[in-house]
């Protein structure tokens, strides 16, 4: 079958894509950015499109032409610089259903979530709920799948945070340690999608996906810590005020385009637990428990590195931003002295202008690195500007390399910090 996967580059979407492609289906993925996806999965066709731009049936029809099945794996946790939940999770879906009725679509498989639990009125769950209701009322053949906490060989979002907290040195810091958690292997989600496409899960089904057994968040974390090969550690319950501060900062980061799993939506949902309804439909196959999922995929040192670096990413970016902001603002306190470094090369007016220009450049880079869509270019800009500064200083005042205060030597650690940021910038 010809299948279109929305959100094909995501954690769930990529697993579904691999499964369906392996079964011989002609798979096409749709995502906002597909440059790397084309390189990673050349056997799959790709469409670059933002769901937030597909707000009418007319906008959807060219993308649906020739497809028989649509699998919707797309989703976002919270509104932010690059995410509009109402547009992408609700309005785009309404337009999709309208277009699908006249585009030869035989079935829509929707990856949703439990929408009646804790935080049901949050935009994340409210938009999902309205989209699910509209699909059920559209007259289209559909299957809705509602996975619990999705785990697998790879990690993203909440599962990445679990690994990071599990690798925390000496202790396991937690909020809502006793919250109930049910998990589902991402490969089992892919199996459910495959069965829905085959018809083994009949049209009109609304199924919750969760392996048998209910854990606490603390136990879930302990299992991940053991999987990473680390000794057990005591759990430290994070004070509520600290949790609120962290959540507020994560929400602020979301406004700059960073998709932190510590945002308020995730914390609200986790407070009530991630579980299935007891009266929900069950899938027609057995699913692997978390312990089995972890044992099937033994961890390697790369998993430990990822877990330990995950929580360092934000402090590193903020530190770089402050470094460049201060390097651009402090010279303004004594502009004449700062401009004197240019005097061997430039006359006084030009030296002052060059100083002001360098300050503006530093401040611009310090701001841009905080904006996720601009972060990569800002980091590359930092490397280029640093190389220029070091080269110019080596020509004009080479003695600065041997200065007891080390003004040039101290720049080198910032270069390594910038390279580290570039290496850890990607999140999927």
Automatic annotation (TrEMBL):
The keyword Membrane applies. Residues 7-150 form the NAD(P)-binding domain. Pfam families: DoxX_3, NAD_binding_10. It comes from the Bacteria. Coiled coil: none annotated. The chain crosses the membrane at residues 310-330, 350-371, 378-396. Keywords: Membrane, Transmembrane, Transmembrane helix. This is SDR family oxidoreductase. It comes from Ciceribacter thiooxidans.
């Amino acid at each position: 079958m010809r299948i279109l996967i929305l959100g094909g580059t995501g954690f769930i979407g990529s697993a579904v894509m691999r499964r369906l492609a392996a079964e011989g289906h002609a798979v096409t993925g749709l995502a906002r950015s597909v440059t790397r996806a084309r390189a990673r999965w050349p056997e799959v066709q790709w469409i670059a499109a933002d769901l937030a731009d597909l707000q009418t049936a007319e906008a959807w029809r060219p993308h649906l032409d020739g497809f028989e099945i649509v699998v919707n794996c797309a989703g976002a946790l919270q509104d932010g610089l690059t995410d509009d939940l109402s547009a992408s999770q609700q309005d785009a879906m309404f337009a999709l259903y309208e277009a699908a009725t006249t585009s030869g679509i035989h079935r829509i498989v929707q990856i949703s979530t439990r929408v009646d639990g804790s935080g049901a009125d949050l935009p994340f769950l409210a938009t999902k709920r309205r989209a699910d209701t509209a699909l059920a009322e559209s007259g289209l053949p559909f299957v809705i799948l509602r996975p619990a906490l999705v785990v697998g060989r790879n990690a993203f979002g909440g599962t990445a945070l679990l690994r990071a907290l599990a690798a925390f040195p000496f202790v396991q810091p937690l909020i809502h340690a006793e919250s109930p958690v049910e998990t589902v292997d991402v490969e089992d989600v892919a199996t459910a999608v495959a069965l829905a496409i085959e018809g083994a899960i009949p049209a009109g089904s609304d199924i919750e996906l969760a392996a048998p057994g209910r854990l606490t968040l603390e136990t879930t974390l302990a299992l991940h810590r053991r999987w990473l090969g680390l000794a057990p550690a005591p759990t430290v319950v994070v004070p509520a005020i600290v949790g609120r501060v962290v959540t507020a900062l994560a929400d602020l980061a979301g406004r700059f385009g960073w998709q932190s799993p510590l945002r308020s939506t995730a914390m609200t949902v986790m407070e009530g637990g991630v579980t299935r309804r007891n009266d929900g439909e069950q899938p027609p196959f057995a699913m692997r428990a978390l312990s089995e999922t972890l044992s099937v995929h033994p961890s390697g040192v790369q998993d430990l590195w990822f877990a330990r670096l995950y929580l360092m990413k934000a402090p590193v970016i903020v530190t770089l931003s402050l470094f460049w902001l201060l390097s651009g603002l402090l010279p303004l306190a004594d502009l004449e002295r700062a401009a004197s470094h240019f005097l061997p090369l430039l006359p006084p007016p030009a030296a002052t202008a060059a100083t002001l220009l360098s300050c503006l450049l530093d401040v611009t880079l310090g701001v841009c690195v905080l904006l996720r869509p601009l972060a990569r270019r800002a980091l590359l800009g930092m490397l280029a500007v640093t190389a220029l500064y070091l080269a110019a200083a080596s020509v004009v005042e080479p003695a600065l390399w041997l200065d007891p205060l080390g003004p040039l030597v101290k720049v080198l650690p910032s270069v390594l910090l910038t390279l580290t940021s570039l290496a850890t910038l990607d999140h999927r």
